[in-house]
Amino acid sequence: MSRSPLEELAALSPAVREQFVAAQPDWVIRDMRLGEWWWTARPEQRTPPGDWFVWLIRSGRGFGKTRTGSEWLVDRAIRYPADTSGFPTEHLLIAETLTDAMRHCVYGPAGVRRVLHRKIGDESKKPSDGGKWRMLKTPKPSIEILETGAKIYIEGADDEDVGRGYNAASAWLDEFAKWRKPDGSWTEGIMPGLRANIPGDHPRACVTTTPKLVLQLVEWIRRTDSSVCVTSGSTYDNAGNLSARMLAELHRRYHGTRLGRQELLGELIEEIEGALWRLDDIEPYKVDVVPCRLINIVVGLDPAGSGTKDESGMIAAGRGADGHDYVLGDWSKQVAGREAARRVWEMYDTYGATVLLYEKNMGQKWLSDVLFQAYRELQREGVFPPGGNPPMRSIDAKVKKRVRAEPVAMRYEQHRVHHVRKGLADLETQMISWVPEETSESPDRIDALVYALLHLAGREAMAGTITVPDGGGLTRVDLSPLAGSGAMPGPYG
Fold first, then answer.
1. The CATH number of the domain where 450 resides is what?
2. Dist CA 338 CA 333 (whole Å)
3. 129-138 per-position pLDDT tens digit
4. Which of 75, 100, 172, 364 could form a disulfide with 95 if both were Cys (CB 3.0 to 4.6 A apart)?
5. Nearest to 220 by CA among 101, 365, 53
6. Which range marks the domain in which residue 337 is found?
């Protein structure tokens, strides 16, 4: 077990400790009394050297992740107060919810507020009060360092838009694996926002989390370049600062279990027992572009309210001329009613689909009406040609979730389903994490995927050959192209 300098000193004899302290200069004695981070941090809690972009700290509970993130972020805000143009820098603190960010990461015993007080002095409501920093509530929660104007913006990870619009120099992402949409939040919002041009360094992110099976964590851990620095640790590493009774109880309850490996030892377990999909049946078979003509494209819709966290699942998929299926896009979002209907029809148009499939049991009449009305609106706006009924079909979802999904999972095991590489990470995280026996629900993205791929598999039954008369002889005719007849031309053929 690694130890901090403070813990190392405490392990020495009283005589040696006294001799050591007597030999230190005044500034060291001051730092020791204040509990400065270089003095109290264990080696694995100190910022690693190197040109990394992401510092991923995956560890068990009680490791000291919050204190590590707080110290790192405050140090960055002080060390890099302005960009190369002289404008004050922006730094991000993002947790699962804004409440978590404020309660634990700002006001908690290991939070940013306590670190700021130790490092630069008192809080103030007004610059004229003589304080060194202040909390701001509007236009959004933030902390301003008064001398330089550098700000730490505080956010909750509600959706993919978190982090969008910033020109940030640093980001601390707390309990990343618990976020609502960790993959999309990183790729669509936070990562593009880490773009400040700062003197002497470049933007960086510190990710502190107890690991769970999230695709972005897997991708970071599997990186072979120097862009990601991974620090692993366990609950036991911080035993000197934790209740001995609590540690004993945790060990008794979780030692030797899968949950214990995750929650105490900080292991990322990449295969969940009971999950229908495995990462190894998805990741190696991804494509950058669809390698063949798509003979049928469909969109699956699972309306908000039928799965977890009230998202409307929207997945586009197509059957290739090679007999394989290709998952093309995921437009799932926390929307409902008319907004969801318009969004799914726009997805239908973008991918050149032939039919929209939607769940039958979710108040079929109102859903059919809303989809119908939204289609008519888009016809009047010129998105769809006038006349004709909306090309939509209801799906009877009375069958158990696992039974319905198993045929789709089997096609993945046969390596006959391929994901287009960009934009499907949140779907993939749901797939490899969903254990049907642990919940009566399935995530909406999965349901929408299953509707689309089951429909494509059903069309496969039309494929084959027949023998027809041909001027005195017999000719075998291939029906495979007819399995997806009526396909509208689109970006995927």
1. 3.30.420.320
2. 13
3. 778 999 998 8
4. 100
5. 53
6. 279-460
pLDDT band at 274, cuts 50/70/90?
A: confident
Do residues 436 and 401 lie in contact, with contact meaning Cβ atoms separated by under 8 Å?
Answer: yes
Q: Percentages helix, strand, coil for the chain, rounded to the nearest 5?
A: 40, 20, 40
- The SS3 of residue 242 is coil
Beta strand pairing call for 151-156 and 90-95: parallel
Residue 389 falls within a domain, yes or no?
A: yes
Paired tokens of 3: 């130890």
What's the CATH code of the domain at 123?
Answer: 3.40.50.300
108 lies in the same domain as 247: yes
Distance CA 185, CA 157 (A): 7
Q: Which amino acid is at 269?
A: I
Is the same domain home to 219 and 316? Answer: no
Please name the amino acid found at residue 187.
T
How far is it, in rounded angstroms, from Cα 28 to Cα 374? 69
246 and 196, same structural domain? yes
Q: What ranges make up the beta strands (E) of 227-359?
A: 228-233, 294-302, 313-320, 325-330, 355-359
Mark out the alpha helices in 255-298 (DSSP H runs): 258-263
Report H helices in 200-276. Answer: 215-222, 244-254, 258-263
Indicate whether 309 belongs to any domain. Answer: yes
Beta strands 355-359 and 392-395, pairing class = parallel
Q: Is 163 helix (H, G, I), strand (E, B) or coil?
A: coil
Q: What is the spatial distance between Cα 20 and Cα 13, in angstroms, rounded to a whole number?
A: 11
Entry field: residues in the chain: 493
- Token pair for 138: 């509007």
Token pair for 198: 């700062």
**Amino acid making up residue 280:** D
Going by C-alpha positions, the residue among 438, 423, 448, 406 that lies closest to residue 187 is 423
Contact by Cβ (8 Å): 128, 121: no
Smallest CA-to-CA distance from 187 within 168, 159, 210, 148 is with 159
**How many alpha carbons fall within 13 Å on the CB side of residue 322?**
11
Q: Is residue 491 part of a domain?
A: no
Q: What is the enclosing helix (H) or strand (E) of 59?
A: strand 54-59
DSSP summary character for residue 89: P
What is the pTM (predicted TM-score) of this model? 0.70
* pLDDT(172) > 80: yes
Identify the three-state secondary structure at position 150.
Answer: coil
